[in-house]
């Protein structure tokens, strides 16, 4: 009763445009997925590949840092586990995946600049 013919025409004209929105939105979704791949997925897979290489190159007498922050020297390497000496005469068995960093033998500790 209160609807004017102009409102009725605008509502009917909006329906065919809905199909065109999908065609304009599809390239944007492809660009968004591409950006997500290059900023999230690819760096994570490269980091995992680098970690796997580091773990396979692990050898005896390497100094390692565990993900918990514990630092020790590798005394024995097995398939899935490593024996680490955390103190003189104290050996701990650790799963290889928990090794966060392998330090180069003889690497100096970082300087504490707070005293300078």
What does this entry look like structurally?
With 116 residues, the chain is an alpha+beta fold. Among the domains are: 22-57; 59-103. It has one helix at residues 5-56; strands at residues 63-66, 71-77, 81-87, 90-95, 99-103. The protein has a five-stranded antiparallel β-sheet with strand order 4-3-2-1-5. Strand 2 (71-77) and strand 3 form a beta hairpin. It is elongated and about 90 Å long. It starts with a helix and ends in a 13-residue tail after the last strand. The model has no long low-confidence stretch (mean pLDDT 82).
Task: Please name the defining characteristics of this protein.
116 residues, alpha+beta, 1 helix, 5 strands, translocation, cell membrane
The largest β sheet comes out as:
5 strands, antiparallel
Strand order of the largest sheet: 4-3-2-1-5
Low-confidence stretches: none
Number of helices: 1
Please report which band the strand proportion falls in: under 5%, 5-15%, 15-25%, 25-35%, 35-45% or over 45%: 25-35%
User: Would you count the extended β strands for me?
Assistant: 5
Order of helices and strands: HEEEEE
Distance between the termini: 84 Å
Shape: elongated
Helix/strand structural class: alpha+beta
Overall pLDDT: 82
The helicity comes to 40-55%
Radius of gyration: 29 Å
List the helices and strands and how they pair.
Blueprint: H1 5-56, E1 63-66, E2 71-77, E3 81-87, E4 90-95, E5 99-103
Keywords: Cell membrane, Membrane, Protein transport, Translocation, Transmembrane, Transmembrane helix, Transport
Main location: membrane
Membrane topology: Single-pass membrane protein
